[in-house]
Amino acid sequence: xxxxxxxxxxxxxxxxxxxxxxxxxxxxxxxxxxxxxxxxxxxxxxxxxxxxxxxxxxxxxxxxxxxxxxxxxxxxxxxxxxxxxxxxxxxxxxxxxxxxxxxxxxxxxxxxxxxxxxxxxxxxxxxxxxxxxxxxxxxxxxxxxxxxxxxxxxxxxxxxxxxxxxxxxx
Length: 170
Description:
It is built from one helix and ten strands; from the N terminus they run αββββββββββ. It has 170 residues and is mainly beta. The chain has one domain: Calycin beta-barrel core domain (Lipocalin). It has a ten-stranded antiparallel barrel with strand order 1-2-3-4-5-6-7-8-9-10. A hairpin with a 5-residue loop joins β3 and β4. The protein starts with 14 loop residues before the first helix and ends with a strand. The model has no long low-confidence stretch (mean pLDDT 90).
């Protein structure tokens, strides 16, 4: 609703903000739609507000699978992830592989205003670390993505990165 060009004129109507809030509240009630806010074409910025890459997220399989591709602006390396709601587990699952062979597998859910996923990252050599990832909507139709890692089984966490996603213009 925030990026659809056919709704541009409606966004000026004072009632649009209320409608948008109601739509977000309803989405949170339908588990399989809770991560739809990530769908789109994004420029990604680091904490210094430098553009570090792009992420494109599309819905596939009749809206049941989010397929994301990340491309690093400097190196050109990339990764792909598949994220979906697993009704049998009542949880969201995300699996990601980068072109260096690292694999990430997460489980989680939508709560406290964001998609919160936790699992393991394993590099090609087999070394593994506990990791948690949070995606949350922020003002202006942007996203905040925070990744943390723990080398001590979750006792302490270290911030790996904090990124801001800004929708690319079509």
